[in-house]
Amino acid sequence: MGKVALGVALGVAVTTCAVAAVVVGRRVRSRRKWKRVVGVLKELEESCETTVGRLRQVVDAMAVEMHAGLASEGGSKLKMLLTFVDNLPSGSEKGTYYALDLGGTNFRVLRVELGGQRSSVLDQDVERQPIPQQLMSGRSEDLLDFIASSLQQFDENANDFEKSSIRKELGFTFSFPVKQTSVSSGILIKWTKGFAIKDMVGEEVAGALQQALDRKGLNMRVAVLVNDTVGTLALGHYHDADTVAAVIIGTGTNACYWERTDAIIKCQGLLTTSGGMVVNMEWGNFWSSHLPRTSYDIELDAESPNSNDQGFEKMISGMYLGEIVRRVILKMSQESDIFGPVSSSLSMPFSLRTPLMAMMHEDDSPELTEVARILKNVLEIPDVPLKARKLVVKVCDVVTRRAARLAAAGIVGILKKIGRDGSSGITGGRSRSDIKMRRTVVAVEGSLYTQYTMFREYLHEALHEILGEDIAQHVILKVTEDGSGIGAALLAASYSSKSVDNVQLL
């Protein structure tokens, strides 16, 4: 009996040891998988590192590329395009002006009444119209006649004063690639955003619109042709005379600024009455070896239709941040089963949009319920444990922080180029605090900056780190809403009394 009991005891002990070994084995494997996932995050953090020293290298590179782009055509990744806008709104503009904003599958018409004092918009009317699909790939005449008809109908709603025989002035915001030839003319280089009207490529854009307005009998003149960044600068300057640059950080990104004409070396014969001109940087195409590029950025760029272009934009704009995060989560899923089997949605490029990424990043609930909901409903990853959800939030944080800090470095790069970063004139051991800094305002527009709190806070933090507190207190970022509409109308007002352009090429 004793032998039987001993045998049973030994059997139980063996079984217990076997079960314990299985449990321990699972824990070891689980820890290894978790370690691999954490390793992916650690590698991402190291690749995205943006120390102040590195950001200052980006600042210097931006300023150098700006100089190169102003020196010669094709001298830099930055195109540094002349806009021929040599006068910004002064505040004395008075009267009623119009704007047409065409930049996608919708267009807007605006009527703005100005009061003759700075920052005095007395009234404004806005009407949005969708563009019928067939007009996006038909004849240019059909599209422009449709737009002119909408302007005509919009104008018929105006009061008797606005129906007077005085010719109305129109600012035309056209957010497609254009080679500007004067403040009111430019040649379409190519269509984007779903448009494919062949007979308009290579043609003068504002002139074609003017012909459509004339066909409809509209007593209206296209006074200026601008892009949305230039409109943002105009509106910013109208509200605050210290505004010297404008940055858009939304789905895409771009910047423009006020430059001295004698610094635009590639056009030595350039003369303006103001001595300056707005330069459209097209800064989304900026590139430098100092930018902290990851394997995810390299793969995203290689698979994009515009590979080797828009490198800066692909690291900082809303079009791409969610996609970078998706690629990191996919890599984690391939390294471990912590997220379960790889779903078709997780494997689909651009399935995670940046607004959803921002919602996960800013989820402050104890259980990260919003993160769980988005992972389940958008990426088809259900039942994610809390520690893995925290990992996802951290990924969002790393990608967003890098983007915001690089955007800040870009802004300081502009300030450095025009001597507004506090570094000019420092000699003989003078400290930065000895320099008398001018108040400098940068107009900012775009949903990534205006609606994404963490992005905005990281950008401001980096701005102060790069410049130092003494200098940063003189640099103000101001949100400017609807520069593409109101800004275009303001520029139409600025150029309304001029029978000829001020800008001359000798």
From TrEMBL:
Residues annotated as domain Hexokinase N-terminal: 41-238
Biological processes, Gene Ontology terms: glycolytic process; intracellular glucose homeostasis
Molecular function per GO: ATP binding; D-glucose binding; glucokinase activity
A Gene Ontology cellular-component term: mitochondrial outer membrane
Pathway entry: Carbohydrate metabolism; hexose metabolism; Carbohydrate degradation; glycolysis; D-glyceraldehyde 3-phosphate and glycerone phosphate from D-glucose: step 1/4
EC number: 2.7.1.-
Membrane topology: Single-pass membrane protein
Positions of the Hexokinase C-terminal domain: 245-493
Enzyme class: transferase
Annotated coiled-coil segments of the chain: none
Keywords: ATP-binding, Glycolysis, Kinase, Membrane, Mitochondrion, Mitochondrion outer membrane, Nucleotide-binding, Transferase
Pfam families: Hexokinase_1, Hexokinase_2
Subcellular location field: Mitochondrion outer membrane
Similarity comment: family membership: Belongs to the hexokinase family.
PANTHER family: HEXOKINASE, HEXOKINASE-4
Protein name: Phosphotransferase
Source species of the chain: Theobroma cacao (Cacao)
Gene responsible for this protein: LOC18589906
